[in-house]
Each structure stands twice: as structure tokens, then as C-alpha cells.
Amino acid sequence: MRLDALAPTRAPLAELIAAHWRAPLLRLALAWAALLALFAADWAAMASQWWNISTYNHVLVVPAILAWLVWQRAEELAKLTPQAWWPGLVPFAGALFVWLLGDASGLATASQLGAVAMLPTVVLTLLGPRVAWALVFPLAYSLFLVPVGEEIVPALQTVTAEITIALTHASGVPAEIEGVFIDTPAGMFEVAEACSGVKFLIAMIALGTLVAHVCFRSWRRRAVFMAVAVVLPVLANGVRAWGTIFIAQSQGIEFAAGFDHVFYGWIFFALVMAMLMGLAFRFFDRAVNEPFIDGAAIDRARWLNPLERWNAKGWPAFAALLALALATLAWSARVHALEAPMPARIDLPEVPGWMRVAAAPAWPWQPRAGGADHRLYGSYRDAEGRVVDVAFALYAAQAEGREAGAFGEGALPSDSEWRWHSPTRAADDVAGERLQALGEHRRVAETWFRTGEWSGTSVMHLKLLTMRDHLLLRAEPTAMLILSAEERAGQDPVVAVADFRRATGDIGEWMDRAGGPG
């Protein structure tokens, strides 16, 4: 007897996959590989955020979670027969359009959302509605790959500051609050962006969604659990901030800061998460060995029968997916080639009642306008001695690295001593923001944008108009104007900025004159 005849044999990977699944899975793998290659820039940007930004570090485990969720359904999925489906091209085209909108406007969140959404829509197209229904939760959960959340940081800072000051007063510590700054006998504390609790909130939402699906069957219990998973980290972050302030009153700020980083930064929120799971454990109503899906029931589901009249052949559907993706990229290339004509030079126009003066801020402040084709900085003073600083930037196009109003750009550069303090609102309802540096220097800033015939303060409105113009292959210059005044004794900077703005006449036309040919 030959010894090798007794050796154990291992089935090749293909033999472990049901025969009727092999060709569809091959097409799916090829389609995903093609999309990852074609939109590699977006995936690389997301991966960089997952790895380098602590707010999104939890996303690094989401791919493993997705693989586990699919693996748990593998046995039941084998009972289904995948079938390509023409209508799946509609949501796929929608994902491509979302990507194009983000790519055309420089809105990374939209382009990344589109890139991620392409993957589940390919599953629907190449494997059909029955398989997609069996995988509906993993496909939906894949949206957690999109790094979002930084947009709510100012709101969370404000909420955390309000919770903190309430607890500080309740604990008998005298304190005053201004925006996100809390003044106590031990010193001034800032509820900074890193203290907003956004990273824990986003991670808790992702974890809560997974737990709600895996551990509960009742939709009511799932809803209650998710509500607690959202509220608890916000409240816990307020307690964390209060604890730091309370400890500082007796142990000093340096000790409190170190304690906050070690205990609150790593242990406290782990305990909060454990507490949430401990409280919810007794209400879990899904058995550990209960299948996530019933493949046979899905295979028999009559409500899916009418959808299958539009079934397709696998390779033609694959080719249609690829053609749509390539057409979208060709459109994107034309959009990025758009450049509005720029004047040789620009200059700040005169303002009635105000005269140009040399800038002399109490603390250095210079807004950022990365990628702008022209930049101007100046200062104006009126008869009352009020000074308004002006920053003007003109862009030939809006794209990655040259976006008016992008994060870290504008009135509050991310690497400066200036910090966001609180929102402001002028008498004519124009929104602005109060900034603070080193705890003593303050200024108010209003940021305006101009494109085409529109002028306003909304970054989102600007993004929407940029999307429209790019989709129509229309090149329009974009201008950004920042009006700012320091907070000085006897002078309200909000009023000073508003008075200067009114003196310009129509702010949009004034910006046009600044960006006109010299």
C-alpha cells in the first residue's frame, strides 16, 4: 500500500463552493476588483482616515465584521440560486451619480459614500434580489465604512459644555461658561474638538447597530437599545469632562489632564460600553444558535417572484456595470478639466465710510485659502476707530485641495492657536462664529461665498451649486470672503462686521468687483 494513499486530502476552494454559485461569485469578485481599482483614490483616502484619524479607527474592524456576517449566512445562502438582475443597474447608477456629485464638488463624504454604495448594488445586480434580501443587513452595514461624523463636532462640543457646567455647579464648584470655555477657580477649560465625544459616539452607533441585529429579534427592543446607545455616550462624555474639572480643583490641571487621558480616554468609555451591554444582556431575545436567515423560506418567497421577470445573463450584466463605471469616470475627467478664466490681478474695493489701514491684530490671525488662484488680505477702519479685517480668495475651480469652505480652511485654520468658541448671529440674522486664542484674544468672523449670481454663507449651498455647474460642464469662478473684527472694550465685533458689510452695498456685487479684472 502506498503511504501517500493514506494522506488526508483537502478539497480545493472551488469544491467548497456550490456549483451554481461559482460563476456568479467569480463575476462578483471581478466586478468588485474593477471598482476598487477604478475608484482607488477614494478607497485610499478612506483607508488613510481609518488608520490616521482616531475618530474612525473603529472602521478598521468593519471589513472583518462584514465577512463574519456573510459567513454566518453561508449555509443558508447555499440554498439560493444567484441570478443576475437588470434593475440592479438602477441603484448602481445612483451610487455612481452620488460619487460623481461628490467628486465634482469636492465633497469627499459624497464621493466616498458613492464608492462604498457601489459594492452592495453590484451584489444586487449580479446575484439578484433573493440573495440581496438574504444579505440585506451586511450590505446595509457596509455603509459604516464611510468615515462620517466630524460634521457634528461643534454641536457635540456645545452639548458637552452644557452638561459639564450643569454637573460642575451641582458639585459645588463655582464656574462660568462662555461658548465651549468653562472658567473655574483652578483655571480655564475648553471643551475642544477632541473632547466632543464624537469618536465614542460614532463607534457606539456602529457597535449598537451590530448588537441590535445579532442579539435582538424584537424591533421594539432594537429601537430602545439603539436610543440608549446614542444617548449614553453623549451623557458619559459630559460626565468625563466634569470629572476632569472636578479633579483639577484639588489636584491641579496637569494631574487632571493626565488622569483624563489615561483613565477617561481608555478605561472610562470601556466601562460605559460594558455597562450598556450588561444592562441589555437580560433583554436579549435571540438564541445564540438561531440562524440569521432562512434560505429555504427566501427561496420560496412569492413576493420576490414578480421581480425575477427582469433576470439577466451574468456576463452581459457584468459588462453593463463596467460600462456605466467607465462612462462616469469619463464624465468626471471632463468636469476636472473645467477652469474659469481668472483676472491677472485682484484688489479689494473701496467701502464708503471705511478706509484701508495696515493690519495690527492683537494676536496673529490669517485665514487659510488653500489652492486659491488669488488671495488678498486687508484691514479697514471707520470714523469710530473700529477695524474690520478682510480676507478674499478667488478660485478658478472647486476640487480636492482647492475648496472654499473645506475642513481646516477659512477663518479657523486647523493648525493655529485659534479655537472655535461659539456661534454668533447679527441683527440681520447672518450667522458667524466667535474664535478665541490663548484664552484671551477673541474675534468674530463671517464667511461669505460667491459663485455665479449667488452669494451666501452656507457651505452646503455652495456645494450644491458647484455640483450643478459641474454636471452641466459649466465653469464658474468661486470667491470666498471672510469679514472679521477683534473683540475690544466698548466695541461689539458682531455689530462692526455687520456695519461694514452693509456699507459695501450688495455683498455679492462687492465680491464681484474684488474679483474683477484689474
From TrEMBL:
Subcellular location, record wording: Cell membrane
Record-annotated membrane-spanning stretches: 25-46, 53-71, 83-101, 113-136, 198-216, 223-243, 263-284, 315-333
UniProt KW Glycosyltransferase keyword: no
Gene Ontology CC annotation, any one: plasma membrane
Chief site of localization: membrane
InterPro entries in alphabetical order: EpsH-like, Exo/Archaeosortase_dom, Exosortase, Exosortase-1, Methanolan_biosynth_EpsI
Gene Ontology MF annotations: peptidase activity
One GO-annotated biological process of the protein: proteolysis
Keywords: Cell membrane, Hydrolase, Membrane, Protease, Transmembrane, Transmembrane helix
Xref: Pfam families: DUF3485, Exosortase_EpsH
Membrane topology, as annotated: Multi-pass membrane protein
Protein name: ABC transporter
